[in-house]
Predict the 3D structure of the following.
Amino acid sequence: MNYLEPAFIANFLTGLTFLLAGWLLKAKPPKNINGLYGYRTTRSMKSKEAWDFAQVLGGKVMMKVGIVLMVMGVFFSFISLPIWLSLSLTIFPLIVALIYMIVSVERALKQRFGQHC
């Protein structure tokens, strides 16, 4: 295992951060709509019910994404990669993870609270 492989370090630490942030969001969601902490999008901030739903679901999705990124990081620790590929395998999964998180939570909000939420 090569724990100094950039793809391992970046993916594992990013995944760990997502896992912890997701757990925090799920375990201690912000009670009120605010501009500082929580899953904040136009749709999630439309109502208190939508806000509460988005915090819990956003936390769950963030935790799942964090686990996937951590597993990818462990996988990358077993192989030696050129730096350009290592960086690509760090940035691309992160972008995909962020898009997945936003799309899945926004879709669930739209299904649960309707088009105008």
